[in-house]
Design a protein that fits this description.
Helix content is 40%, strand content 6%. Helix 1 packs antiparallel against helix 7. The strands form two sheets. It has a three-stranded antiparallel sheet with strand order 3-4-5, with no helix packed on it. It is extended. It contains seven helices and five strands. By secondary structure, it is mainly alpha-helical. Strand 1 and strand 2 form a beta hairpin.
């Protein structure tokens, strides 16, 4: 049986390892080595930056949403980004959704409500493939956690397009050269260009900045409760450490009286 000091030492060692699990949990597989970016949500005490998330949402709304869905998010979730109820209602109402049936048994369209899922640009996968030359645009809800180093990979992907491929590399029609993509040939054309959007907060809209912002937003979309999970993890570890020291003090007192 472990003595109390040894138990305390073991938990002291295990505690940081447990806190590591409070970091964004990225799925294993298809990793690759990409330049590490400075993400505000990284680390034990990492948090989302709401201004960055709002800029990222603007990029998604004005650029990404033309092809990609966010099927696991509802408009009401935007409250976490700092939008108020009126703003969320206004954002949702920009889109029409199918509802019904009505009293006559017919489907109808209406403005989206905060409770509705994000608008999907295509009615189904077949329509999406037809509109994109056979390629199916992926849903972005969990894309930031779809592989190891997900945020770093997405940033690298968005910033690694080249108009001219290296000598000896032939790029077939309908494909594009990208340093970060496996095989370097990707069906998605370059989505971001300098000054493509006018940020509402006046921030410079470079490709690097827009890529950073939209990746932050996609990480939030995949892990909206990250801050709460980390906070809970820290509280649990502090409680366990306190409990160990209480048991150790009790053990010292008990054995002192016995001797």
């Amino acid at each position: 049986m472990l003595k109390m000091p040894k138990i305390a030492s073991v938990i002291t060692i295990i505690a940081p390892l447990m806190l590591i699990s409070a970091n964004p949990a990225l799925a294993a597989g298809g990793g690759g080595s990409y330049a590490k970016q400075d993400w505000s949500f990284s680390g034990i005490f990492g948090k989302y930056d709401k201004l960055t998330l709002q800029r990222g949402f603007q990029i998604h709304k004005e650029v990404c949403a033309a092809c990609h869905s966010l099927k696991y998010l509802s408009y009401r979730h935007l409250e976490a980004l700092g939008y108020n109820e009126a703003q969320i209602k206004a954002l949702a109402s920009e889109y029409e959704v199918t509802d019904g049936p009505n009293d006559e048994g017919e489907m109808y369209t209406r403005p989206a409500l905060p409770s509705d899922r994000f608008y999907s640009p295509f009615a189904n996968d077949a329509a999406a493939r037809y509109a994109n030359g056979g390629a199916l645009p992926v849903d972005l809800s969990l894309i930031a956690k779809a592989r190891a180093n997900g945020p770093d990979y997405l940033y690298a992907l968005l910033t690694s397009y080249h108009d001219d491929a290296p000598a000896g590399v032939e790029v077939p029609e309908g494909l594009y050269y990208n340093d970060a993509f496996s095989g370097n040939l990707i069906a998605m054309p370059q989505p971001l260009y300098d000054d493509q959007v006018a940020y509402q907060d006046g921030h410079d809209a470079t490709v690097a900045q827009m890529s950073y912002d939209v990746v932050n937003f996609l990480m939030w979309a995949a892990e909206p409760h990250l801050e709460e999970r980390k906070s809970l993890g820290i509280k649990v570890i502090l409680f366990l450490l306190f409990f160990v020291f209480v048991l150790y003090a009790h053990k010292r007192r008990l054995w002192k009286n016995l001797h």
